[in-house]
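REQUEST ID: PR-0412
SUBMITTED BY: lab tech R.K.
PRIORITY: routine
TASK: structure prediction, single protein chain
INPUT:
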Amino acid sequence: MTDPTNKPRIVICIGDIHGYLTKLLNLWPNLQSQIDPESLNTATVIFLGDYCDRGPDTRKVIDFLISLPKQYPNQKHVFLSGNHDLAFAGFVGVLPGEFEAKDTWQEYADLEEREGWYKGEGYEKMHLQGRRWGGWIKVKFNAAKGFEYKGSIYDAVPTFESYGVSHGSSDLIKAVPEDHKKFLADMVWVHEEDEVCDQNVLNTLMVDCEKVKSRWKLSRCFQCTFLHDDVCIETEEGLKNCKLIAVHAGLERGKNVQEQLEFLKARDTRLPKVTDLSGRKDVWDIPKELTETIVVSGHHGKLHIEGLRLIIDEGGGLENNPVAAIVLPSMKIVRDTDNFSWFQVSRS
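STATUS: complete
OUTPUT:
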């Protein structure tokens, strides 16, 4: 809910971390330096997924994320599932729902040899993405990324090693702590911030109709209404009220948006692949039927801001690229590599 003092609430969207704890630990104080403490402590923080793979410290990254609700009890934390995280969850057996493992393999069976799907202990009950994640890809060089694969098509070797297990070993299932399994099991596939009237606040304040009208007029002057649990962004015309949908890769154009949202909320793992978590061009743009709605994603290995379409993945899991976040309503980009403390000292 927007602050009753008419101060727009802060929403922070953090891009793909991919096992880089040092980047995450540098990004967090940079965010702290750019947001006043009161606003930060009540902010909504949306992590856009892909916490694992490529970088060396997946285990410690998840430890940090799990610790946030206790450190910042007044913040709202949202942990989206990325395609890498879904595959990790598939390997350790904590995917939501029920599915027939073999049914998830069939559509992509012709890729099994090339991708070297996992075929060790327990594979018979494993989702396709778990098998792909724990396997050994035969092609060693990833031409699209410009580096060699780290074990599997998901670059999962560093994740196994962060838990003290060799890549492709079923020992990982025992090595992953229960609180990490719960984190993986609880990740959401989509998050919405909607314009919804908060009746509880109205009841608490016991305001009459005239006071509501007065407050409405006041809030409209700030262009961010107290009655709505929406998100504000800064535009050339001032603050703009928007809904927000956060999903790791994006929403497919040409498919009914409501049906996609219902599918994502249900976390239906019977399908072999979730396009909204793993697609590329097919989920790049905002579906035409969405208006006044921010769609924010990570996944694409790019920082792309076009209107209300926000893609925040400047790192792409590459060692020399920064992890970035966007702060709403200011639309400010904050990176782990920013040296705000130096800037502030140099001006003093």
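NOTES: The radius of gyration is 21 Å.
REVIEWED BY: pending
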